[in-house]
Amino acid sequence: DSHKMSKKLLVGNTMLCPITGEEFQMTHETKSSEYQGKIYYFCCPGCKPMFGKNQGKYLKKDVKEDKKSRH
Hints:
- By secondary structure, this protein is an alpha+beta fold.
- It has helices at about 1-10, 45-55, 55-70, and strands at about 15, 25, 30-35, 40.
- It contains three helices and four strands; from the N terminus they run H-E-E-E-E-H-H.
């Protein structure tokens, strides 16, 4: 499974949780979800169900932050 393989390659990397906006270190236990062809990783198990309920809410926040950083 390519998702499991890419996760193994990311273990130890610093990631950004789309729910909390906090940086965290990837582990083998890090939870993830795929949405519109992109894989999102979460800082704790509680963030995954929050993302699953309303992906758009959290992804819109990311888009706004990206636009700010580009100017």
